[in-house]
Write a structure and sequence with these properties.
The strands form three sheets. The chain has a six-stranded antiparallel sheet with strand order 6-5-16-13-8-9, covered by helices on one side. By secondary structure, it is α+β, with helices and mostly antiparallel strands. It is built from six helices and 16 strands. The two termini are 39 Å apart. The protein is elongated and about 65 Å long.
């Protein structure tokens, strides 16, 4: 790999306190002659105050096109935020896990020595599928979004009636708290917590997991990636719901709305430096097989 564009370091200030790890990585990269930009990940505007000297609050979208790689310092949520901007131009992301489960992050704090290999272009890239979602109301699309992990539909503090379809064929019908439509990457997130299966993240599947369904027959389904999954919200209980993509902003959903979810044309490109397999991560982080 000969691309010598800049490398963006994107710390979550709530995880990388004082940007300590960020500065360590910056030092390694600069010793290799790499052009580095520190671009913190903000939860809200209030986080932009109190930045260290020399660090500016630049918008991600303004500089990402000139990046070779984005390195995030935080958890999976930090990677999800970066992926929303990086997916369009196809910029690879390397995650450094600063605590928590961190299934998407390739490096743990003790792996920072591997940054030397990244600095000279010795790394691999793994593509992860994403999902597109649209909300259809009275025959018109009123909202669309995309996600790396999942599209979640939940009742607004009430049970809702849902009918799930795959390419127009009914899969399941139940009352419950909602449903998760996940990618394999998202199978270890909310979908797993709701009782869904763990799927190897490089696979190409769409996973549907009911949330607290009120009938035992409502089970998770793993579909091939070219299906269109539709979730129809019933009128019966007259209770509003919301949809969110990767845990982002809640979008109001009404009775009669249909949420269509498909494999996206976008992908998230994740950098691989370590030899830590997905199976090892599951074992270490979930205690499976121990």
């Amino acid at each position: 790999m000969t691309n010598r564009k800049m490398i963006i370091l994107s710390p979550n200030g709530n995880r990388d306190i004082g940007f300590e790890m960020t500065y360590k990585v910056m030092d390694i990269l600069e010793r290799h002659g790499r052009n580095v930009l520190v671009l913190p990940m903000f939860d809200d505007d209030s986080d932009k105050f109190g930045l260290p000297a020399g660090i500016d609050a630049i918008e991600f979208a303004d500089v990402v096109a000139n990046a070779e790689i984005i390195i995030t310092f935080g958890g999976d949520g930090t990677i999800l935020q970066a992926a929303r901007t990086a997916a369009g131009p196809g910029i690879p992301i390397l995650g450094v896990n600063m605590g928590g489960k961190g299934f998407m992050a390739d490096l743990e704090i003790g792996d920072i020595k591997l940054i030397d290999a990244l600095a000279i272009g010795e790394y691999d890239i793994e593509d992860r599928m994403m999902l597109d979602a649209e909300v259809v109301r009275d025959g018109a699309i009123v909202h669309d979004d995309f996600a790396l992990n999942d599209i979640v539909l939940r009742g607004d503090n009430k049970v809702i009636d849902l009918t799930l379809y795959g390419d127009g064929q009914q899969i399941s019908r139940f009352s419950g708290d909602g449903a998760v439509v996940a990618t394999p990457t998202g199978s270890t997130a909310y979908s797993m917590a709701a009782g869904g299966p763990i799927v190897e993240p490089s696979a190409q599947n769409i996973i549907i997991t009911p949330i607290c369904a009120h009938i035992l027959e409502a089970k998770p389904f793993v579909l091939v990636s070219d299906r269109c999954v539709s979730i129809e919200v019933g009128f019966k209980k007259n209770s509003n719901a919301y949809m969110s993509a990767d845990g982002g902003n809640h979008v109001g959903i009404l009775g009669g709305d249909v949420i269509n979810v498909r494999k996206s044309g976008k992908v998230t490109r994740l950098v691989r430096l370590s030899d830590r397999s997905f199976y090892r991560k599951v074992s270490e982080k979930l205690g499976v097989g121990q």
